[in-house]
Amino acid sequence: MIAIQGATFIYPGATVPALENLNLAIEPGEFLAITGPNGSGKSTLARLLNGLLRPLEGRVLVDGMDTSDDTALITIRRRVGMVFQDPDNQLVAATVAEDVAFGLENLGLPPAEIRKRVDLALKSVGLENLAARPPHLLSGGQKQRLALAGVLAMEPRYLVLDEATAMLDPVAREEILEQVLRLRREQGIAVILITHLMEEAIRADRMLIMKFGRIFWQGSPREISHQERLLAAAGLRLPAVIALAKSLRQGGIKLATNPVCVEELARALWKLASRE
Amino acid sequence: MEISLQGVDFAYQVAGRQLPVLYNIDLKISAGDFLALTGAGGSGKSTLAQIIAGLLEPTAGKVSLDGRVLPGRGKFRGASPWSRVGMAFQMPEQQLFAETVMEDVSFGPRNMGLSPDRVKARAYKALEAVGLDPETIGDRSPFTLSGGQRRRVALAGILAMEPEVLILDEPTAGLDPAGQELVLDLIRDFARRRDRAVVVVSHNMAEVAAMASQVLVLHRGRIALQGTPREIFRQEEALRAYGLLPPPLTQLMHSLRQRGAPVPTDVLTLDEARDAILHWLKA
């Protein structure tokens, strides 16, 4: 479990805290989505989870290890993998394969094990054919998949994706999300997804909306997906499908359920049509 | 003004080997056009945008401005025809460098050799065009601003050069919905004048639908589809094969149609989708 206890964080020179007295527990294997407008503190929160930032007050415990304990940091960072929005800052080596191997070499693993993990990680993100290519010649989306491969190769228990799919095309985004969720099912990796997209957040078990460095709302994403006013207050947009469902209701269509995605709305409408 | 590409190929040189990215691209952008370049990651759309902007030179083929074949920007010193074309890279805010917002936005026009008064006037106008108040924000460091504000400062720096063609690579990626809306508004504002043209690289089809008059889909370095947003979104299977998805409402119409509902699949707005569904259910 990752436990954030009364954490406050203020950036140097800032007058307002980026995070204020935050309390949050993330369970192993959980799928948690964190949303909120730019500047609401979600990226700061992400950086607390593996000790990239440490709270000024309060503490963050990863499986019982305190992120302010320097001797535990290496273990903590292996357990909590992070992929950021901008992969350029995360890529270091001359080729794609070397880039994935970089972190593993630092762990002192035997070469055969490194090769196995590199192959597996590249395959899982669909980059196995580009292993010899220099990272700077990859497209934005390919770089992002490479950054993800580098993190997956470390076999983390918690995977934090901070707007990690923002630069991906829709099919690649879906593939990456599917892949991450499959790892979660198979290996019990917890997924912490930081996103502006309600369409993505809606698939999580639990959703958290940040605002002004605090938790503004938390609960089931289905619950909030139809509360337009609450979403607007959090700077989020009503997903197109839900907005359409609402508009159809106002037009006299009696939908039995609250659909949250294309397939659910299509099914509900088709049911209505076949009944009549 | 008109930019035209004829038979353009492009390959990167990697360790003495050619890495082809674009093949035989023919393309014309004229004043009044709003072109969306789309395609899966790695399809070559960012590279193509940089060729249209004169930042990369094609390996083969010709790029011309107003009918004159031109070498790339790098071959010119000082003023060049390319200064009429502005380009915003992905995450342009990462290239902000000056100590204040005003200095950053003034950099381009100053380099064009304008007088200090005109530089200032242009910087003010550009900041206002992106919805920022030059008086309150001009003296601040870009690093004290939010991500969305920084993005708009970077775009103001390009607008201050008063380009006739504006090329933007994923202009809204990574912004929250409010920030995205502001950036789309400023692009629409720019495009309102008939003597201007816009090229947007985007894989967000809902965004493309709302803005572009023409869509060009790239697949593995070649032009795979070309047409109006309606013509493109009708082709759901082809889009999927090229790594793209139509906007959610178009997906819904396709899904209903597959089930047998007689609904159109080329809706672009929520109102169109609603009216089509109401028409079908009440028929």
Automatic annotation (TrEMBL), chain A:
Q: Which InterPro entries match?
A: AAA+_ATPase, ABC_transporter-like_ATP-bd, ABC_transporter-like_CS, ABC_transpr_CbiO/EcfA_su, ECF_ABC_transporter_ATP-bd, EcfA_1, P-loop_NTPase
Q: Which Pfam families match?
A: ABC_tran (PF00005)
Q: What does the UniProt keyword field contain?
A: ATP-binding, Cell membrane, Hydrolase, Membrane, Nucleotide-binding, Translocase, Transport
Molecular-function annotations in GO: ATP binding; ATP hydrolysis activity; ATPase-coupled transmembrane transporter activity
Q: Does the keyword Transmembrane apply?
A: no
Q: What is its EC number?
A: 3.6.3.-
ABC transporter domain: which residues? 2-237
Membrane topology summary: Peripheral membrane protein
Localization, UniProt: Cell membrane
| Entry keyword annotation includes Cell membrane | yes
Q: Could you give one GO CC term from the UniProt record?
A: ATP-binding cassette (ABC) transporter complex
Against NCBIfam families, the record matches this protein to:
ECF_ATPase_1
Q: Which family does it belong to?
A: Belongs to the ABC transporter superfamily.
**Protein known as:** Energy-coupling factor transporter ATP-binding protein EcfA1
Automatic annotation (TrEMBL), chain B:
Q: Which InterPro entries match?
A: AAA+_ATPase (IPR003593), ABC_transporter-like_ATP-bd (IPR003439), ABC_transporter-like_CS (IPR017871), ABC_transpr_CbiO/EcfA_su (IPR015856), ECF_ABC_transporter_ATP-bd (IPR050095), P-loop_NTPase (IPR027417)
Q: Which CDD domains match?
A: ABC_cobalt_CbiO_domain1 (cd03225)
> Which portions of this protein are annotated as coiled-coil regions?
none
Q: Does the keyword Zinc-finger apply?
A: no
Any Gene Ontology CC annotation: ATP-binding cassette (ABC) transporter complex
Q: What is its main location?
A: membrane
The enzyme's E.C. designation = 3.6.3.-
Its family remark reads: Belongs to the ABC transporter superfamily.
Its recorded name reads Energy-coupling factor transporter ATP-binding protein EcfA2
